[in-house]
């Protein structure tokens, strides 16, 4: 991964992160009434000051846990889901610093689950909604994923449905409000196993938050199709797919395999920079 980062460079990495037109803030004036899955942002004051990292997980695309055994089963629950924990520990400081540069505090579960009530809500009570289309996307992910595991202290919230309008409302409003934060961040990494090793094929991130525009006293259309008014929205989401998946673990390597994850912190930082570039560009465009 470190070699990929050095050869590619941050600016090219940012360009490779795909943020499609349906996964970033709307800029047409007709969205000023707050309708739609993504927000109409008109001021940097509408950007969140506090963000909770609500899920940090790995999707095992080819049955890593069943296909090989490294140190007692690298993705087994018994050893703390070592890969997820290694990546989390490798990237957390850079993630926090990237948000801090934007005037935002990134919180992890040990920080935002500061009461028993919040912890119970996060782990037990919260049931994110999903539309029929979102269920279809979720099933695609489940069908091709043998196992999904989180870093310690995180709850699994699949990113297969994170771009869905109902899921966006659940995460951006209900969950964010109950955790007492202004937005939530989700991170997922796709891995697969072959005889040559373990590879990263995709990295995905989303930010959800409350609708920054109040609901007007008018009729909104398309409430069941993703074009109505939603109190929670997808602020931005993106995917970095590696044309040639990056080997992160050599199965013949018996020690120090964690060093193969070095460079992921640059990938994660590039996501945050890309996200804020897109959100600020949207704000500038609507104010012209």
Total beta strands: 6
What gap, in angstroms, lies between the N and C termini? 40 Å
β-strand percent reads 15-25%
Task: Please identify the structural class as seen in this structure.
Answer: alpha/beta
Question: What is the average per-residue confidence, as pLDDT, rounded to a whole number?
Answer: 88
Stretches where pLDDT is under 50 for at least 5 consecutive residues are: 63-76
Largest sheet: 6 strands, mixed
Shape: globular
Question: Oligomeric state of the chains?
Answer: single chain
> Share of helix among residues?
25-40%
**Structural domains: how many:** 1
Description:
With 288 residues, the protein is of the alpha/beta class. The chain has one domain (2-286). Helices cover 35% and strands 22% of the residues. It is built from nine helices and six strands, in the order H-H-E-H-H-E-H-H-H-E-H-E-E-E-H. It has helices spanning 2-8, 10-16, 64-67, 82-100, 109-112, 116-125, 132-144, 165-179, 264-286; strands spanning 50-60, 105-107, 147-150, 183-194, 197-210, 232-249. Strands 1, 2, 3, 4, 5 and 6 form a six-stranded mixed beta sheet that branches. A hairpin with a 2-residue loop joins strand 4 (183-194) and strand 5 (197-210). Helix 4 packs across helix 9. The longest helix is centred in the C-terminal third of the chain and has 23 residues, at 264-286. The radius of gyration is 19 Å and the shape is globular.
